Description:
Blueprint: E1 2-4, H1 16-22, H2 36-47, E2 67-73, E3 82-87, E4 92-98, H3 102-108, H4 113-117, E5 120-126, H5 129-135, H6 138-160, E6 164-165, H7 173-180, E7 185-193
Antiparallel strand pairs: 1-4, 2-3, 2-5, 3-4, 5-7, 6-7
Helix pairs in contact: 1-6, 2-6, 5-6
The structure holds flavin mononucleotide.
Amino acid sequence: MIVNLPSPHTKGFISFEEVLYRRRSVREYRNEPITLYHLSQLLWSAQGITSEFGYRTAPSAGALYPLEIYCSAENVEGIDAGIYKYDPFNHQIACVKFGFYNKELYKACLYQPQVADAPLVIVITAVFERTTKKYGSRGIRYVFSEVGHVSQNIYLQATALGLGTVAIGAFEEDMIKDILNASEEPIYVMPVGVPL
Ligand SMILES: Cc1cc2nc3c(=O)[nH]c(=O)nc-3n(C[C@H](O)[C@H](O)[C@H](O)COP(=O)(O)O)c2cc1C
């Protein structure tokens, strides 16, 4: 199943400097849904296409775009719970499988409670070969750098929307891949919710 996301907004309500100042890792969330508009903005901030030439919100070495964004939506208004994959070309999400998977992700993230409690969990994954086939082993470093750019975009967009997130690096990679049905390598897990 494909879900069309609302068109991204390119104007916000607080200044960029204030977003930088307010950004914090947030690990406690209200038991509240987030909206489809929130999900749309977060995914667009991660990998949205912002140019007729295909360039995106985050930079990429050689514009090779090795990253893929998944999410586990447990409490997002307007969509059924499930694992979804972002399609930046059409600003859509495609359902990988329906169901509630945050408890599984929580176990894979070494039982970090913020993962179980969040209405949405974003996972940034990578296909290293897209970059290493051009840049060799240096491309590995490039891919990790790109994940940092994307993660920071998600942090800042979440902050601008009044949401909270945290970049999680402590997890069992194979468990995350199984939960997502993904062949890509997971690099960061980012639960998102309304701060408590
Ligand atoms: C590479 C990396 C891995 C991280 N892994 C985790 C993690 O597994 N769990 C977690 O709660 N926070 C994790 N964090 C978030 C840091 O704990 C957090 O950024 C740090 O405490 C500074 O707080 P701030 O982000 O609010 O400025 C990670 C951050 C980075 C950069």
